[in-house]
Amino acid sequence: MLENLQDTRIKVGLTIQVRLVADLKASLAYYRDILGCTVDDWGHAQRDDMIFILQQAKSRDDVRPNAASQKRQDYPTEWHGPDHGWDTFVHMEWEDLEPFVEEIREKGAIISVEPFTAIHGKWEFKNVYVDDPDGYTIVFGAMREI
Questions:
Q1: CA angle 97-99-103, nearest 5°?
Q2: Which pLDDT tens digit goes with each residue over 101-141?
Q3: d(Cα 99, Cα 36) in Å, to the nearest integer?
Q4: Which among 35, 60, 33, 59 has a CA at the least distance from the CA of 48?
Q5: Which residue range(s) make up the domain with 94?
Q6: Which CATH number does the domain housing residue 42 bear?
Q7: Torsion sign across C-alpha atoms 101, 90, 17, 15
Q8: Number of folded domains in the chain?
């Protein structure tokens, strides 16, 4: 029954993150020059499948990166949740993560948490936390089965 339901569902499209930023020009420059995105005058910043729409906030008070989430005891593995707020999670291939980190580090990326690995159940994860000028945290992460 569920298989038939899946076949008839309307497909939704790519999800694009929208962010209010304190200084649109500075943010576009960071996403372009540091993270390697293509940017335009509309506020789009894109690198491969990572896409943002950056919009000028009316007030600095309107810029609100996520706080750390509540820890949970009911995840499917021993992990209880992140220690820092996440605004975006970007999946990468395992072998691409370290070279990417070095690429953006050399350009002046704001790396708030250095690359680290962890094991959750049958998966090994490797993540790095990168902040933008407004304090939004982008987690670049890879995983592989153990």
A1: 115
A2: 999 999 999 999 999 999 888 999 999 999 999 999 999 99
A3: 13
A4: 35
A5: 2-61+85-145
A6: 3.10.180.10
A7: positive
A8: 1
